[in-house]
Write a structure and sequence with these properties.
Structural class: mainly alpha
Distance between the termini: 86 Å
Helix content: 55-70%
Shape: elongated
Strand content: under 5%
Radius of gyration: 30 Å
Largest sheet: 2 strands, antiparallel
Length: about 500
């Protein structure tokens, strides 16, 4: 095995352009070592994840270096892998008979993106929390399986301990195992067919050895990467944005820089076109990568003689870079598409009452935006809609039975203590007016389910027997004059139509 590895022929001789594959493998090994090291200190719980990461960074000797190497190593891993893909594309090394090597490489690229996505949440800081919130919400837009995908990722309707646990398992077990399998397949497929070498036939006639020429260049690049990563870890500490606060309404989420091009592209798809951006565009990109060696089947490898393919590749790279830059410098006045977990996406009706009129299309769009804001602003962490969501505050579908006006709801968002001085609901005064208006429109459109109404009625109806069953027999006037028994009679015979304390009452005022 040593002889086979060291004396592998290198078409065209040793080159620095050949080091990208070895550098990618080297960075993955750094990720494995530093990842396992961090697991000795990391606590995958929502109340201790952030503090355990900060303990590693601040108190463990050289913990800042281990954390920094893992963070910056992940960024370098994506960059170097991307450069490797570009080099293979330019040299047309994906063509027959190396299609399988290319497909393994595409799988590695997708799995690496999954590792970046799942790893961002693990510190349970603000950036990672909202990136995962937006990402899992986008997963909910997938046709047919969207709701299942979202609940599978989150472990339920909302971001919770189950979400962190699932991301932790994916990041430290499932995806690394899959990545190792793909790396093994990639290397085996590469060794079966060998290096494609330069596209010039004249240069391919000359062959060098992996040892010592190419290995020397690999070691030089690995040493340079190590110095770079240690320098970044020491002088540009890995960013962390404070412990996640689902009620922080002032934070405008953005994804990791690796996904900024998709984030920016999604802004072009609004309303009913949204699934084309959240599902169609990534699928189209993935299909383009997978089908490339089967569509570009000409044996010609010179990039100057492949104008169509090279032009498409150039446009794709230029588009990704442009969208990434625009996404980085943009201020998200409108939060990117995110869909409420467990909230009905069916068209609402005016006022939520029985037999209410259908909402006009313009208002329905406003209500849809409000439904997004209900999740994006963290409302669902405290409030439920027909039992789906948090349990800190009241179920807002039931609150519509109280006949709240838009002015009352807007005042509640601006200054919650004006209605309840002892309440702890945060103010949403810093949220954009358009977002608050959409949120109010959504709240006014809610309709309580019959099951929720029945449950509320049962909870508010005292479990007391009638006077004739519990007290000594007496005149009817005595029962009428007894306030306590009057309340019992009201709950027995009047509650379902008229309600009490703004609960119940479906027919009469």
């Amino acid at each position: 095995m040593v002889q086979q590895g060291l004396h592998e022929p290198v078409p065209g001789g040793a080159r620095f352009t050949y080091v990208l594959g070895s550098a990618t493998l080297f960075l993955f090994i750094i990720q494995l070592v530093t990842g396992v090291w961090q697991m000795f200190y990391y606590a995958p719980t929502v109340d201790h994840a952030y503090s355990s990461v900060m303990y590693l960074r601040l108190h463990v000797p050289f913990g800042w270096l281990i954390h920094g190497l893992h963070y910056w190593g992940a960024q370098a891993f994506i960059v170097v892998m991307g450069l490797h893909v570009i080099r293979v594309f330019i040299w047309a090394s994906y063509k027959k008979p190396r299609e399988l090597t290319w497909l393994f490489g595409v799988g590695l690229l997708v799995t690496a993106a999954g590792l970046v996505f799942t790893g961002a949440l693990l510190p349970w800081d603000t950036l990672g929390y909202w990136a995962a919130e937006v990402g899992t919400s986008i997963a909910g837009t997938v046709p047919l399986i969207g709701d299942f995908s979202q609940r599978m990722l989150r472990g339920g309707a909302t971001m919770s301990q189950l979400t962190l646990g699932r991301f932790f398992v994916m990041h430290v077990v499932l995806l690394p195992f899959l990545l190792m399998l793909l790396i093994a397949g990639h290397i085996v497929a590469f060794r079966q067919q060998g290096s494609a070498g330069p596209w010039q036939e004249k240069k391919r006639r000359f062959s060098g050895n992996f040892w010592p020429d190419q290995l020397f260049k690999d070691v030089v690049v690995m040493a340079g990467l190590t110095i770079l990563l240690v320098g970044l870890s020491a002088f540009v500490r890995a960013p962390i944005t404070g412990q996640a606060d689902p009620l922080n309404t002032s934070y405008a989420p953005k994804p990791e820089w690796n996904f900024l091009f998709l984030y920016q592209a999604l802004k072009a798809f609004k309303g009913s076109w949204e699934p084309l951006g959240t599902v169609g565009l990534p699928t189209l990109i993935l299909l383009g990568f997978v089908s490339l060696p089967f569509l570009d089947r000409r044996p010609e490898r010179n990039p100057l003689k492949r104008p169509v393919v090279m032009s498409l590749g150039f446009l794709f790279v230029a588009g990704v870079l442009t969208l990434t830059i625009l996404g980085a410098v943009s201020t998200p006045s409108a939060i990117p598409p995110a869909h409420a977990s467990g909230l009905s996406s069916t068209g609402p009706t005016q006022g939520g009452g029985q037999g209410a009129a259908t909402v006009p299309a313009s208002e329905k769009n406003l209500i849809q935006q409000g439904r997004h804001q209900f999740v994006n602003q963290g409302c669902i962490a405290c409030h439920a809609i027909n039992g789906e969501g948090g349990a800190v505050g009241p179920d807002l579908a039931l609150e519509t039975q109280k006949g709240r006006s838009s002015a009352w709801l807007m005042a509640q968002l601006m200054d919650p203590r004006s209605h309840d001085p002892k309440g702890f609901m945060p103010s949403f005064a810093k949220v954009a007016l358009a977002h608050r208006q959409a949120l109010v429109a959504y709240l006014l459109s809610l309709k309580a389910s019959p099951e929720l109404i029945a449950k509320a009625q049962a909870a508010n109806r005292p479990k007391l027997p009638l006077s004739g069953e519990q007290g000594p027999p007496g005149a009817a006037s005595k029962m009428i004059g007894d306030a306590r028994n009057g309340q019992v009679l009201f709950n027995q015979y009047c509650f379902d139509c008229h309600g009490r304390d703004a609960v119940g009452g479906l027919a009469d005022p």
